[in-house]
Fold this sequence. Notes:
Blueprint: H1 9-12, H2 21-29, E1 34-39, H3 45-51, E2 56-62, H4 74-77, H5 81-92, E3 98-101, H6 105-109, E4 117-122, H7 128-138, E5 142-150, H8 156-166, E6 171-172, E7 178-181
Parallel strand pairs: 1-2, 1-4, 2-3, 4-5
Antiparallel strand pairs: 5-7, 6-7
Helix pairs in contact: 7-8
Amino acid sequence: xxxxxxxxxxxxxxxxxxxxxxxxxxIEMLDTNCVMAEIGCxxxxxxxxxxxxxxxxxxxxxxxxxxxxxINDGASQKGNMAEVEKTFDENTSAINKIIKVKQKSLxxxxxxxxxxxxxxxxxGSHKYEDVVNDIITWIPKIKKGGILAGHDIMWRDVALAVxxxxxxxxxxxxxxxxxxxxx
Length: 183
């Protein structure tokens, strides 16, 4: 999949040293004509993975690109989000299926209709309360039979938030992604 998107960051940044196996497995689960939202895009490595799939027709790429949003997340503590956003823009602006939304998760959700998405991938704030709020807010946006997923299930706060709101994930992957089918 990687070679389908012309992009410098996948080789340069390496934000996913654990690889893309989980994302590839999730893409295999998706139906065709999938409309999705990705919460937390950073440089856009995963955004570009989603975009490389012919199954996905539209991606709402949601991120505030705001410095110091999560004290527990080293990426946000680097204080370089303007540069991160610039790289995201350079690598995604020519891909028509990506709609960049520079807002916080809950703010962006207000502009997405309920039951309009097939798939939501959460990888924004890793704080317990934020993950709980993301799950509660985004589930109504997903059509019945769609998938809620996320990254970093090995983080204590993420795992607790997932468990409290939706129970055990249906699947977890080596890259620490997880999925739950919405029924």
